[in-house]
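Researcher: We're teaching a course module on how sequence relates to structure. For the next exercise, students receive a sequence and then see the predicted structure as tokens, so they can try to spot secondary structure elements on their own. Here is the exercise chain.
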Amino acid sequence: MTKFSCPGLLTALQYLTSVAGVWTLAKLGLLYHDPFNFQTAKKFAPAALVFYLAIFTNTYTSPEAC
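Model: And here is the predicted structure for the students to work with:
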């Protein structure tokens, strides 16, 4: 496994990749998403937190798994 010396940057890149994927699929007409608003964001906050924790724990535990 390749060692990545900056796990914070890796986490940011994973989020950027997720955003870029949704944006690209929406532009190609393969995905529809509602416009952003805070009411919807509050409803999805638990799912967003779980997503964040999954990426965070993956970033910090993957090097230890080898």
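Model: If you want an answer key for the exercise: The chain has three helices and no strands. The mean pLDDT is 82.
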